[in-house]
Amino acid sequence: MDNANEHRVCSCNAENDLEHNKCASSCSWSGDEGTLAFEETDQLNPRYVPESSSVTEIEQIMKRKLKFFFMNPIEKWQAKRRLPCKFIVQIMKIILVTVQLCLFAHSRYNHVNYTWDNRIAFSHLFLRGWDATREVNSYPPGLGPLALYKISEFYDTLDFAIEGYSNLSEAIGPYSYTEEDNSMSSPMLCFSQYKEGSIFGFNESYIFNSEIIETCANFTNITKGFSSKEFLNKQHVKIEFSALVSATLQFSVKTVNFKAAGPMTPPDCYKFDIEISFDNRDHDGQMLLTLDADAVRLCCKGDIEYTVDNEIDLILRSILNSLVIFICSISFILCSRAVYRAQQLKEETRKFFKATYNKDLSVEGRLEFLNMWYIMIIVNDVLIILGSAIKEQIEKQEVASDQWNICGVLLGTGNLLVWFGVLRYLGFFKTYNVVILTLKKATPKVARFLLCAVLIYAGFTFCGWLILGPYHMKFRSLASTSECLFALINGDDMYATFSIMSYKSPMLWWYSRVYLYSFISLYIYVVLSLFISVIMDAYETIKLYYKDGFPKNDVQEFIADYIEESSSSTESISSCYMSSISLRGLLDVICCKRYYSR
């Protein structure tokens, strides 16, 4: 017995495994009936291993490692009082990222809405023939495209835009020229035309050279009654409309947006690069006319009263961006470390299986060590960090509008994945985990089913685009054809799709009926029903698993016997440590340890 005490071995007699499990804590016991060991620094799970068992000590250590690895945060908290750091970080990240997204969405909406309203104003000021009815997007469109049909209309449109630009002070909007002294800068006309493009239709002949030449001219000395045609003739700039491909008239204006001002936000300053485009690529006698205005945010030199408020706003936004980047960086490090350690444990498990059982882990077993939730969290961390960095630049520097869109895509996608990550923690509860397991179970079957459905869908798409495209506005492009068919699957706009078809070709009119009836019947009554049945089959399978038990791979089977042996003792230890939540938790834990060590 002295020898036993020297080696910190406790002797006890018990008739069953549970008594042995309650026998000792932080010690090992040797006797005639078996061996009992417990390491408090590992999983706080006592284990009783009979000497007659063929399970070695190395196997028990490996099982204990794997058991603890596959615990969820709640079980780890109950077992070792390990603080769920990743869970806390994710909760903080959800709150901060959502607040950041709401603020940025409000700013971006104001920015996009402001630029759109200004584009409408520029269309009225500089675009000849623009009407308010074109400002409403209706379907089907009530008006045709804005286009030019005569050479005189081309020059009249240029003169109208230049005159409106020269009389910028008459506009209701607070628009100014881009020069520092508010002097008018020269509008620039650039046009592209074929090097040679003469057509002699009366005898079906032509002269054509496909090389495209681009020419630009600045309109200077603009006075009242300015004529662009006369100016171009004086500059020896000749436009051959039979060879003309496209033309653009470009100029810029500056303005200040007072609407954005608030208790802590100053007005915003913008420069609008306006471009009027003349599209003659089709050479079908119709030159399409459009106006676009690209907004560039500038640094304002405003009233001194807004200096302090501006600094407060920038400081608060910078603090929020910094917190988001900091929290996402911590989340990235924690999840990357977890993925790395999982791969280390996988390699250790593979070596153990090869050495002990002379076999490798199955594919399912190896995939158990790859946590796709962590991979998704890592991806959204990267997206949010990049988006926050761009957002910080937008709020401090001159930024073009395309960076607003890039920042919006990064932050929006990252926030989407952040909220998807909440499903991982809901999966710890049986009620919510049914949905996740159903999706996981149905994914392979759904993917195979969708592959077959997509092949049929592609056939209908290409067929409709080719045959119905010239006679149906919804089938004029491959993208619009696919969108129309997808809408039909969901029962949207069916009657309009049938009625819009032109009756110019009776044969194609009847063909369109057969085509549409076949597609709608096949996908609504057959494909969608089969799709739902695949998911329902997975749901019934998951319900059966909950009743009869889930199938296990080689890793789960390996640790199953360890879980069974230690289940009763784990409950007693967990109940003891759960008492530490109370004010006397520390004393209760000490008492529990003393009780088990008797």
Automatic annotation (TrEMBL):
Superkingdom assignment: Eukaryota
Residue stretches making up the Polycystin cation channel PKD1/PKD2 domain: 404-542
Entry GO MF terms: NAADP-sensitive calcium-release channel activity
Location of the Mucolipin extracytosolic domain: 112-301
GO cellular component annotations of the record: endosome membrane; lysosomal membrane; plasma membrane
Membrane-related topology note: Multi-pass membrane protein
Catalytic activity: Ca(2+)(in) = Ca(2+)(out)
Matching InterPro entries: MCLN_ECD, Mucolipin, PKD1_2_channel
TM segment ranges: 319-340, 372-391, 403-426, 446-468, 514-536
Record keywords, A-Z: Cell membrane, Disulfide bond, Endosome, Ion channel, Ion transport, Membrane, Transmembrane, Transmembrane helix, Transport
Subcellular location: Cell membrane; Endosome membrane
Protein name according to UniProt: Mucolipin-3
Native species: Gryllus longicercus
